[in-house]
C-alpha cells in the first residue's frame, strides 16, 4: 500500500476485483458472456413480461431518485440517493437485456427505456408518483425496497430462468441496503420532532393506497404473492412501530400498473428521461 | 434527534472523520470526513461516500471533535529527536523474504 495515496491504494489490487466495474462506457451488452438460452419448459413470453415489468419498476424509481440530485437536504444524502438510484438502474439494464433476448424482438436495453410510450410501461404506479418531500421519498423507498427485496429473494431461489434468478440474487444485497437506509430515516423522522413525525406519517399514508397493487404485482412477476405480502407487512410493521407511526393501511386504489393503468405523472417523467435519446436517435458519447 | 429539551438547533450536522480498511489493508486508514446527525448515520454516509468503488470491508467513524491532534508548535520537540536514532530501526537484522508487512 502506498503511503501517499492511501485512499486510492485501497481501491486497487483486490484479488476479487472483477465485480467492480460492472458498467462503464463501451459495454454494449450487460449480459455479455452469460448463457442466454431459454430453458425448456419456460414460457418465453411470460418471462419477458416479468423482466419488463421489474425493469420498468426499477427504471422509473431510479429516475425519481435522480431528481434529488442538487436538491437533497445534505450532500451526503444526495450521494446516497443517487447510489440507490444507480443500483436500480443497473437492475433495469440487466432485466431489459434479458427481456430483449427472450421476447423474440432482439431489442436492446435502450429500446425499452427510451423508445416506448407511457402506455407501454408496466411499472407499479407507486414508482411514478412525484418525489414529494424527503419524508415521502423515504416512505416510498421503504415500501418499494421492502417489496422488491421480498420478490427478488423468491426469484433468486425459485425462478426457472437461471438468468432472471441470477439478476435477482445480485439485487438482493443492494435492496437490503436500500431498505435499511429507508428504515433508518423512517425511524429518525417518525421519532424526531413534531414536524418530522407529521411529514413521515403523511408520506406513509400517501403510499398506503398503492400497497395492494404491489402485493398482486408479485404474482405477475413469478413470486409467491402470499409470502411476499406476509414478509412486507411484517417488515413495515416493525419499522413503523419503532418509529411510533401507525400501520400503513388504506383502501386500495382501483386499476393496476401491471395492466397499463397509469397516473398522470408517468408521461412527464418519460418525456424528460427520453427527450435526448429521441431527439438524437442512436447518439453515443 | 429524539433528545427533547435540547433547544439549541445546530446550524449543520457535526463533522465526522472516516477510516476505511481495505481488503488487503492491514489497518484502517483515514480517507476523509463527512457530516452526519448521529453515529449510525455517519456510518451509512461513510458507506455511501467512501466505499462506492469497493474500497473497504470495514469502516470506523469518529466525531472530529473527539480527535486530539499534535500542534505545529510541538513539531520539533515531538518529532526531531527521533531523526538520528538509527538504532531504533531494525537495520541490524536480516529479514527473511517471506515475512510480510515490515
TrEMBL record, chain A:
Name this protein carries in UniProt: Ring-1,2-phenylacetyl-CoA epoxidase subunit PaaC
One Pfam family per UniProt: PaaA_PaaC
Listed PANTHER family: 1,2-PHENYLACETYL-COA EPOXIDASE, SUBUNIT C, PHENYLACETIC ACID DEGRADATION PROTEIN PAA
GO BP annotations listed: phenylacetate catabolic process
GO CC annotations on file: cytosol
TrEMBL record, chain B:
Lineage: superkingdom: Bacteria
InterPro entries: PaaB, PaaB_sf
UniProt source species: Actinacidiphila glaucinigra
The protein, known as: Ring-1,2-phenylacetyl-CoA epoxidase subunit PaaB
Amino acid at each position: 500500500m502506498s503511503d501517499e495515496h492511501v485512499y486510492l491504494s485501497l481501491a486497487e489490487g483486490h484479488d476479487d476485483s472483477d465485480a467492480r466495474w460492472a458498467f462503464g462506457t463501451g459495454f454494449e451488452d450487460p449480459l455479455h458472456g452469460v448463457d442466454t438460452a431459454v430453458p425448456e419448459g419456460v414460457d418465453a413470453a411470460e418471462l419477458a413480461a416479468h423482466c419488463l415489468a421489474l425493469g420498468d419498476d426499477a427504471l422509473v424509481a431510479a429516475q425519481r431518485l435522480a431528481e434529488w440530485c442538487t436538491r437533497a437536504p445534505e450532500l451526503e444524502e444526495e450521494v446516497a440517493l443517487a447510489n440507490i438510484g444507480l443500483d436500480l438502474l443497473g437492475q433495469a439494464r440487466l432485466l431489459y437485456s434479458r427481456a430483449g433476448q427472450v421476447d423474440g424482438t432482439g431489442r436492446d436495453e435502450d429500446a425499452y427505456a427510451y423508445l416506448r410510450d407511457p402506455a407501454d410501461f408496466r411499472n407499479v404506479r407507486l414508482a411514478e408518483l412525484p418525489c414529494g418531500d424527503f419524508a415521502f421519498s423515504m416512505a416510498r423507498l421503504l415500501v418499494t425496497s421492502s417489496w422488491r427485496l421480498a420478490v427478488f429473494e423468491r426469484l433468486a431461489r425459485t425462478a426457472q430462468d437461471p438468468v432472471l434468478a441470477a439478476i435477482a440474487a445480485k439485487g438482493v444485497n443492494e435492496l437490503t441496503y436500500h431498505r435499511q437506509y429507508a428504515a433508518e430515516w423512517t425511524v429518525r423522522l417518525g421519532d424526531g420532532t413534531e414536524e418530522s413525525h407529521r411529514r413521515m406519517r403523511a408520506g406513509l399514508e400517501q403510499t398506503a393506497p398503492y400497497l395492494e397493487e404491489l402485493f398482486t404485482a408479485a404474482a405477475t412477476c413469478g413470486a409467491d404473492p402470499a409470502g411476499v405480502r406476509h414478509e412486507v407487512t411484517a417488515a413495515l410493521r416493525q419499522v413503523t412501530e419503532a418509529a411510533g407511526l401507525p400501520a400503513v393501511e388504506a383502501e386500495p386504489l382501483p386499476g393496476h400498473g401491471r395492466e397499463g393503468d397509469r397516473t398522470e405523472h408517468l408521461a412527464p417523467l418519460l418525456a424528460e428521461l427520453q427527450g435526448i435519446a429521441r431527439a438524437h436517435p442512436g447518439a453515443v458519447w | 434527534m429524539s433528545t427533547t429539551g435540547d433547544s439549541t438547533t445546530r446550524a449543520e450536522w457535526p463533522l465526522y472523520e472516516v477510516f476505511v480498511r481495505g481488503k488487503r489493508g492491514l489497518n484502517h486508514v483515514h480517507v476523509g470526513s463527512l457530516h452526519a446527525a448521529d453515529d449510525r448515520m455517519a456510518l451509512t454516509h461513510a458507506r455511501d461516500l467512501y466505499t462506492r468503488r469497493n474500497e473497504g470491508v470495514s469502516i470506523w467513524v469518529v466525531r472530529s471533535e473527539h480527535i486530539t491532534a499534535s500542534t505545529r508548535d510541538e513539531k520539533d520537540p515531538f518529532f526531531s529527536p527521533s531523526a538520528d536514532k538509527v538504532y531504533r530501526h531494525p537495520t541490524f537484522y536480516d529479514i527473511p523474504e517471506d515475512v510480510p508487512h515490515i
